[in-house]
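Fig. S4 source data, part A: sequence.
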Amino acid sequence: MYLYVIEKQAHRSQQCLIHRKKNNQYGKTLTSALERLSVHLAEYQHIFRNRTKKFFDKAEKYAQGIVQSQMRNIERISEESGTDYYQMQHFISESKWDAREVVNQVALEVSTVLPKRKLTGLIIDESGWVKKGDKSVGVGWQYCGNVGKISNSQVAVFACLSNGDFASMIDSRLYLPKDWCDDPERCYEAERKGTKGPMPKRLKATTDGISVCNYLKTLDRQQWQKLSVRNTTKGVLTGEYHFARVYIWDKATDQTEQRLLVIRKTKPGKATVEIKYSFTNANLEQYTPEALAYMQAERFFIEHCIKEAKDILGLDQFQTRKWLAWHHQVALNFLVSSFILKEKLRCFEDLPLLSARDI
């Protein structure tokens, strides 16, 4: 399950990838990529300082290590960059630079460099990775989609901006399981502001909730519409869609949120039916069914972003335990991810299928 919002941007025609042809300079656009990485990182150097110290050199070494190292943990990056391990460990775990400021600047830059097309989506999805022990922040026995079962793991929610063939990570939130932060009395005390006035009231649902699986059983053939979404490597993505305005009850805050439920039904094989669903804060008064169906299909790109962040940039190789360290490493990971997006765009005319691993 995932959430996305849609924003309008100016439309610009795009030539199909198969129409791109090699030229005499094929591949030469990558020859100065390392120099461009240094320029890219320099745009963030004002963040890596405090009143008495500057530590941009550590940020630069760590980011370069993400690109160049095979094992992307602090120890290996320190070894390969010739940096003192304990200084790098302190930079990640203790230094008072603002990870949020890095992430915010990354988000702004990604939004700026993406091609200006009609629809751009903010796609939100979760991902997890198995961990050993119980000391890492947020680790616990919880469902981990990466392995498809309950395991001792960390789980986080990620956001990316997606624009057709291009996407990049721009935000994250680490999930804290109940055994880390479940404290009903503390939450109740936090609801009341001061001692004057009436006690705050808790909302109560007047009807029972229903799962999407059970809701599907109530739908008949007339409540579905067939839509063609976009081209894929296997042909045109076509499916049957159902849209419904729903209200999601947040038990933690006793509040409701209105969303549009989008359900897609496809037949990847003659005897199989695949169901996918999502919630969006867009609605059918703003966008056509075709636009909403197109944006739902953009989930592929955040899944691809997460896979790149893990397999190529080491997002799941963190060996630190603290909250601050986790956010510092994620911010630097996103910083490199935004550079990779810029390289894909820069080299598109020459290398239209350029991957993060290639870079």
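Fig. S4 source data, part B ends here. The first strand starts at residue 3 and ends at 8.
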